[in-house]
Design goal:
Belongs to the SURF1 family. With 271 residues, this protein is α/β, with parallel strands linked by helices. Helix content is 37%, strand content 20%. The longest helix has 42 residues, at 8-49.
Length: 271
């Protein structure tokens, strides 16, 4: 009855179904795990940004790798900005997706150590070789508040660290790289400044990271699992249809050609 399943066509179709089922199950779990990571990150961001600000020296030190648990933690830093070693980070976007640069200014702390401060976004220069117009820093000693961030790397960010860039332009925000350029100890990671606000509004501070949306990963996971359930159902439907078609063809063949009408035969003159 089901010997047709041993045909080449049906063996191939069955093997494809057997491969699709575990593959789509795995894709569903991949999206589900991405959903879980997004939910966990949102919780981490919310907990971190709502924490009480602490002096930056309590969370990092020269050569320190900022752990994930300290990402976005509010910190304070008191010192004097060093504009002589200020650089800009190329190919960064504003809150409304305009291409520009981030301004990195070293802040020399009272103990002589340095922390890199991302003061915010400004438009890029008219050409890629020129240094953009950067708003001046406050004079004298200042106290800033910001979010602690880990050093950027090519592996983590996907941003290529291009060589041969114009003077005072970089691709990554990296404290070790800046320590080499400055020639002094630099605290690990960097600070995204959130306060005080720029007086003239010419620099756009980095907005608070999104921690409300969870994306569509869970919906994608459910879709993959629905597709998984659809494969065996579709296979069974095709098998039953094939069986029904074969039985109908067999029954039609067993009946043979239709018998001629007797009256018509008698009425036909013989030759």
């Amino acid at each position: 009855m089901y010997r047709f399943l041993l045909s080449r066509q049906w063996v191939i179709l069955t093997l494809i179904a057997l491969v699709l089922v575990p593959t789509m199950i795995e894709l569903g779990f991949w999206q589900f795990h991405r959903h879980e990571r997004r939910v966990a990150q949102n919780a981490l961001i919310e907990d971190s940004i709502s924490a009480r600000p602490v002096p930056v020296e309590q969370l990092t030190s020269p050569g320190h790798t900022v752990p994930r648990a300290d990402y976005w933690r509010p910190v304070t830093a008191t010192g004097t900005f060093d504009t002589a070693h200020e650089v800009v980070v190329r190919r960064r976007t504003s809150s409304d997706d305009r291409i520009g640069v981030h301004v990195l200014t070293p802040l020399v702390l009272r103990d002589g150590k340095i922390v890199i401060v991302n003061r915010g976004w400004v438009p890029a220069a008219a050409d890629q070789h020129s240094y953009p117009a950067v708003p001046p820093v406050p004079k004298g000693e200042v106290t800033i508040t910001g979010r602690l961030k880990a050093d950027e790397t090519t592996g983590a960010s996907g941003i290529k660290d291009l060589k041969g860039l114009p003077d005072r332009q970089v691709m990554l925000i990296n404290s070790r790289q800046q320590a080499e350029l400055i020639g002094r100890e630099v605290l690990g990671g960097y600070v995204e400044q959130t306060a005080p606000d720029p007086a003239d509004g010419t620099i756009e501070q980095i907005p608070e990271p999104d921690h409300d949306s969870i994306g569509a990963h869970m919906a994608y996971a459910v879709q993959w699992w629905l597709f998984t359930a659809g494969v065996p159902v579709g296979w069974v439907i095709l098998v039953r249809r094939e069986k029904r078609d074969r039985e109908a063809a067999a029954a039609s063949g067993a009946a043979g050609p239709p018998e001629p009408d007797t009256a018509e035969t008698l009425a036909t003159p013989s030759r």
